[in-house]
Amino acid sequence: MLSSLTPIILLCLKIVVMFKEECFQSPVDSKKIFYRSALRETRKAVVICHGACEHSGRYQRLIKFLWERGYSVFAYDHRGHGRSEGKRVHVDCFSDYLSDLDQMLNLLRNLNYLRIHLFGHSMGGLITARYIQEQQPDIASLILSSPLCGLGATSKIKVIVAPIIARIWPGFTLQSPVDETLLSHDELVGREYGEDPMVFNMCTVKWGVELMKSFPILFKKADLIRVPLLLMVAGADKLTNPNASREFFKIIGSRDKKYYFFEDMYHEIFNEVENDKPFGCLADWLKTLDGDLCKELG
Fold this sequence. Notes:
With 298 residues, this protein is an alpha/beta fold. It has a single domain (3-289), classed as Rossmann fold (3-Layer(aba) Sandwich). 35% of the residues lie in helices and 22% in strands. The chain contains nine helices and eleven strands. It has helices at 60-68, 95-110, 123-135, 156-168, 187-195, 205-220, 242-251, 276-290, 294-297, and strands spanning 3-9, 16-25, 32-38, 44-49, 72-76, 115-121, 141-145, 173-175, 202-204, 229-234, 257-262. The strands form two sheets. The protein has a nine-stranded mixed β-sheet with strand order 1-2-3-5-4-6-7-10-11, sandwiched between helices. A two-stranded antiparallel sheet has the order 8-9. The longest helix has 16 residues, at 95-110. The relative contact order is 0.14.
């Protein structure tokens, strides 16, 4: 079990956030799943689920934003990503991701957090949405950022051939589908992504097939998502399919739901040049849901 306190000065500001770094064991196969937490004296928390091929360490700006607003923040690395165990960017079954997330939430429940928001970006959005459909957890809201509701610009040949290869050679590796130049209009974001040793630029064909198999289920069970939902979509996103996200939003069962479309933004809206817009939408959403509970739970 890894456990440590790491002081990190976020964004070169004078505010020091103490990260606690630990691992929990996956209920699937006992793999160690790494997570970092920035804690406050509060009963409110946000769990961050990152996207494909990256890791939770890339979310320091978002963690700082949420922590400053009185939330404890937990961000974990998916199996096969970052500092978690497992073959890199591979999954035997998509449900393994859901089991790991459930274990993360069990940890928060044991810490007596009463208001838990789930934040999912890209693949993390697919994971959190599918988790809610299957588990119906008692959470405060689901927040989706450029969720992977469908493929972006992908070769049709790859889509057809991948399932065949996965049956014969599931561990066969392919180039990562993430183009660093399409993450943000801020060139520094792409450059740092490309130089990040914790980012893995390959994936297995089995991983890709498991994701693709999840898309029709996501839409078929859309009405089972009934928690308050905030969906934020990047209009110029070429890594996921913005139109699929829009259609998904229309059929979601939540009565309390909001949709924001940032027409000219690339995939990582919270790392965009004009990220004050999505950050503002997120702040308004949390204030609306939790504003009256700040004194009681904070």
